[in-house]
Write a structure and sequence with these properties.
The complex is a heterodimer of chains A (499) and B (102). By secondary structure, chain A is mainly alpha-helical. Helix content of chain A is 74%, strand content 1%. Chain A has a two-stranded antiparallel sheet. In chain A, α3 runs parallel beside α6 and α6 runs parallel beside α12. The chains are: A mainly alpha (499), B mainly alpha (102).
């Protein structure tokens, strides 16, 4: 037993680095309380080290470690890379965030918690046991509840964290109840064991459907899909902007990684071809593909329609992120390797464009103290650089060529078409058109309306320009030269236990 | 009368329903959290009952221990957040805490 644990630790180095650096940062915060930047640099360094070990993991192949609790495979490697990159950018943003400096008493705990959140999300990507999935989900949720309320003297931040913990704890509680029923039916909490039981035993259909729906509640909350999205706008609006950015990208990526692995391993009959709807048949009673399609349509449509009437840019981006969860669910409806690869490509693109949009919002909010779209009047003239960068990010979020967002959508739609689910592709395309309206409304305010009389131009420091360029360049370049990310995503579809 | 699996499942089902009812109807944040605790404990009863009567291994009881630890962590964080809310708003009524959403 000890042998296997020691063996497993070899494939667990990225996570080990994160655990150790969490402890180091907590200690460093006690020692260097006055110089709070020390912890920020420590956190950044630890993510770089974690990335180094993640790179080494590329040669590990496909393994299951810790008594089949955790899988090491290209699929989890891919999502770990996305999550660690997102955390790295968010820590970079936090270095100069005025909000965090002025409204909190030091950022030491903040950095430690971001590392813990990263650890939780990294564990979510590889979990192959329902208990492990639940624990990883709770680790990432509990830290994000605290981080959402980190500026605790601000009323909206406190309110955001209260709403977050009530919705989050309820959803994960319901999910746990579903897991307990599934455990009773199949006698296993290992997703491969559950798959075997579903394939070869006759189980009570009604109980199975209840368990399935309860578990979907937990996943739906994590990826903020309609109708489990009610927390999203309030939490995104109230949290510190850096945390909103992290939740909208990394948290969603972790939720999707876990949902894809769970669906693909548990529900799918591997013997039936990749595109045949018959592969869903082992989970009897309900047409699961149809349910996922409905979730996707609801998320896209409600996210986009409600975003039309928003006045606060952070809240608008919250609804847009709900809509994006809907787009990505389209790939999950297909669930062939092509569909999964499309979701993964979309995540690479979404990482840069969404983080970029939030970074611009943060830079502007730090200077004018507002996230109101009306206060963005003439922003394109007050700071041409921010204006142009925001234009690129928002056009990419809409999916207009030649930005990277277009490539992401292109692959999603083409996977739907090769699976012959045309109606969903049409709904998705129509939704993209709706989304153009509210993104362009921001751009119109920035460029076509004159600034207020006493408005001054905004000063941006060199380092901020540098971070911005780091985000703008991929958003444009990946739209023009996308072969590498497509190949990377297609090579990363492989999961443990699935050919 | 012999107490068997069905009885435990009924108990957990009732507990779950009561928890959900509490979360939906209560306006006091603390009572909402108590509802959530009921849901977690309902799941725990399920795990232990299945593990004991279902002829399964000790998995279920192990999971229940994990869930209890997690519930404690969750409630600690939740109470800290509620305390902070009380300092800001001077109330713990979830309906009155509604500054966002204009």
């Amino acid at each position: 037993m000890l042998d296997q644990i020691l063996q497993s630790l070899k494939y667990f180095q990225t996570e080990t680095v994160l655990v150790v650096s969490f402890c180091v940062i907590v200690l460093a915060d006690l020692i260097f309380r006055k110089k709070s930047n020390v912890t920020s640099y420590l956190a950044l360094i630890s993510l770089v080290v974690a990335t180094y070990y993640l790179g080494l993991q590329g040669s590990d192949g496909i393994k299951s470690i810790f008594f089949n609790m955790f899988a090491v495979d290209p699929f989890s490697l891919f999502f770990k890379a996305i999550i660690i990159t997102a955390s790295f950018f968010v820590l970079l943003f936090s270095l100069n965030s005025k909000e965090l400096v002025s409204k909190t008493r030091g950022v030491g705990e903040y950095n430690a918690l971001v590392i813990a959140l990263t650890l939780g999300m990294v564990l979510m990507t590889g979990a192959t046991n329902l208990l492990m999935m639940y624990l990883a989900l709770e680790l990432s949720s509990l830290t994000s509840y605290i981080l959402a309320g980190y500026t605790k003297d601000a009323e909206d931040s406190s309110e955001a964290s209260l709403k977050y913990i009530i919705y989050g704890a309820l959803s994960s509680g319901i999910m746990l109840y579903g897991i307990s029923i599934l455990y009773g039916l199949t006698g296993s909490v290992d997703i491969y064991g559950i798959h075997q039981a579903l394939m070869f035993q006759h189980l009570n259909t009604a109980a199975l459907v209840v368990a399935g729906i309860f578990i979907v509640v937990g996943f739906g909350y994590k990826i903020s899909a309609v109708p489990f999205h009610f927390w999203t706008p309030d939490v995104y609006e109230g949290s510190p902007i850096t945390i909103t950015a992290l939740l909208s990208v990394a948290s969603k990526a972790a939720g999707f990684a876990m949902l894809i692995r769970f669906t693909k391993v548990t529900f799918i009959n591997p013997a039936i071809g990749n595109l045949d709807p018959g592969m869903w048949d082992i989970f009897k009673g309900i047409d699961w593909r149809f349910i996922l399609a409905i979730l996707s349509v609801l998320s896209m449509t409600i996210g986009n329609l409600v975003a039309l009437s928003q006045k606060n840019l952070k809240r608008l981006l919250a609804y847009s992120s709900i809509a994006h969860a809907g787009y990505m669910l389209m790939g999950l409806v297909v669930l062939s390797n092509e569909g999964i690869a499309a979701v993964m490509i979309y995540f690479i693109v979404y990482l840069f464009m969404n983080l970029g949009a939030f970074y611009v919002v943060m830079l502007i909010a730090d200077r004018i103290g507002s996230e109101n779209i009306d206060d963005y009047r003439g922003m394109g003239f007050r700071s041409p650089l921010l204006g142009v960068a925001m234009t690129i990010f928002l056009l990419s979020l809409t999916g207009i060529p030649p930005t990277a967002g277009f490539i992401g959508k292109l692959y999603l739609f083409s996977s739907l078409i090769s699976a012959k689910i045309f109606w969903l592709a049409i709904v998705g395309a129509l939704n993209s058109v709706v989304s153009l309206y509210y993104y362009v409304r921001v751009l119109r305010n920035m460029f076509l309306r004159d600034p207020q009389a006493n408005a001054q131009s905004l000063q941006i420091s060199f380092i901020e320009v540098f971070i911005l360029i780091l985000l703008v360049l991929p958003t444009i370049l990946l739209g023009l030269y996308f072969t590498p990310i497509v190949e990377f995503a297609q090579a990363s579809v492989t999961m443990f236990g699935i050919q | 009368m012999q107490v068997g699996l069905t009885h435990y499942l009924f108990l957990s089902g009732i507990l779950f329903a009561m928890g959900l009812y509490g979360v939906i109807t209560r306006r006091n944040a603390i009572l909402v959290l108590m509802g959530i605790e009921l849901i977690l404990n309902a799941a725990n009863i399920n795990f232990i009952a299945f593990s004991r009567y279902g002829g399964m291994q000790i998995d279920g009881q192990m999971i229940a221990v994990f869930v209890m630890i997690l519930a404690a962590a969750e409630v600690a964080i939740a109470l800290a957040i509620v305390l902070n809310i009380y300092k800001q708003f001077r109330t713990v009524n979830v309906d009155e805490i509604n500054k966002l959403k204009e």
